[in-house]
Amino acid sequence: MVGTTSTKNGTWRNWGGNVSVRPAREVAPASVDELAAAVRRAAEDGMPVKAVGTGHSFTSIAATDGLLIRPHLLTGIRHVDRAAGTVTVEAGTPLRRLNTALAREGLSLTNMGDIMEQTVAGAISTGTHGTGRDSASIAAQIRGLELVTADGSVLTCSAEENPDVFAAARIGLGALGVVTAITFAVEPVFLLTAREEPMPFDRVCAEFDQLHAENEHFEFYWFPHTGNTNTKRNNRSAGPERPVPRFKGWFEDEFLSNGVFQAANWAGRAAPASIPAIARISSRALSARTYTDIPYKVFTSPRRVRFVEMEYAVPRAALVKTLRELKAMVDRSPLRVSFPVEVRTAPADDITLSTASGRDSAYIAVHMFKGTPYQGYFTAAERIFTAHEGRPHWGKIHTRDAGYLSRVYPRFGEFTALRDRLDPERRFRNDYLRRVLGS
């Protein structure tokens, strides 16, 4: 099933299959007290500690050869506060379960990413986001956090309580502690009307500022080797509810977008020269459609074709120039890219290491089918992104280190100083954190 990871013969692997590790010990605590005790025992044994979610990160951010904490018993809603407009949820709860539970309560998150397989803690810790003109990432909707720190104590934080921890821990990279519960802002469930339609690449680029300004949520997919995109506009609606008919939804979202797309990628992997022709067909496979439904049924889509991914946030004003440079690079190169490039936006937020921290941002995500060489494409793309002061998604492939990241994050030193205070012995260390945060 999508979203699950496996531990076979003592080896843990991520969803994309590009990260594997053999932890010395695994625990699945059923309470915060059990989790805290496991952290204290690891400290006594001099063992590093990492918590994993569903393994949807393509980096080794959750990898450890020490204690691996599996949070699947820490699930469910702790408390709904309708007066405050908040819900407190256990850290291991999958977003799918949270969204359906909220819908039953007549509630919803304001914005979300495009898949629901991650745990809530994994999603916020890596900066998972959707697209939005005014509404930001999942982490920006947090109103309170509970985490177990390196000495096994339980720390709670909010804008009023331990605000310096709250500023950083909403996207904490697993470096500040193990998140055990999250309090999200929620609102009464509402309807979104989605308008999906093909649009030429040059038109999207020419009208991008207008499309962004006129829609609450705008995103598009460009198909490399073509001048074609598919666009999606989501806006609040008074109704009535008009979901995608069941068979049409299965045909377009499962059969075409997953089944046929999987077969096309297999063909492209076997015969790379065929990829441009396949891309031209794929970019025209989905016709325009409009539907109205509750938020999680509009924001999210099934993703069953496995891939690896790199995503960078660039200043929103630099999006069109960056994307045109990416297209020119692909057009003049021998690269054969079978996956579309995804483009989304987010407003500036106040989270220390958010990819949108302090600046309006646009995201460009490049993907390659699992099992195909991706290094050449990603290296060339990353060179373009970093020329525009791009910030890499913490859970997706990149090669940046603390030296680079400290230049593109004005509050980088604030985060590392807090890490020094909360985890001076680096209980939550691993090679990834050593690279991106320094030792």
Structure notes:
The chain has 439 residues and is α+β, with helices and mostly antiparallel strands. Helices cover 32% and strands 24% of the residues. It contains 13 helices and 21 strands. The protein has helices at residues 32-44, 95-104, 120-125, 163-169, 201-214, 246-270, 275-282, 295-299, 319-332, 375-387, 402-408, 412-422, 431-437, and strands spanning 6-8, 11-13, 20-21, 25-27, 49-51, 67-69, 77-81, 86-90, 107-108, 142-148, 154-157, 178-185, 187-188, 191-200, 217-222, 228-237, 289-293, 307-315, 341-346, 361-369, 391-392. An 8-stranded antiparallel beta sheet has the order 17-14-16-15-19-20-18-21. It has a 5-stranded antiparallel beta sheet with strand order 7-8-12-10-11. A 3-stranded antiparallel beta sheet has the order 1-2-3, with no helix packed on it. A hairpin with a 6-residue loop joins strand 2 (11-13) and strand 3. Helix 11 (402-408) packs across helix 13. The two termini are 37 Å apart. 45% of the residues are buried. The model is unreliable at 1-6 (pLDDT under 50).
End-to-end separation in angstroms reads 37 Å
Q: Spans of 5+ residues with little confidence (pLDDT < 50)?
A: 1-6
Structural class: alpha+beta
Count of strand segments: 21
Q: How much is the radius of gyration in Å? A: 21 Å
User: Rough shape?
Assistant: globular
Strands of the widest sheet, in order across it, are 17-14-16-15-19-20-18-21
Strand content is 15-25%
Tally the helices: 13
List keywords for this structure.
439 residues, alpha+beta, 8-stranded antiparallel beta sheet, 5-stranded antiparallel beta sheet, globular, disordered N terminus
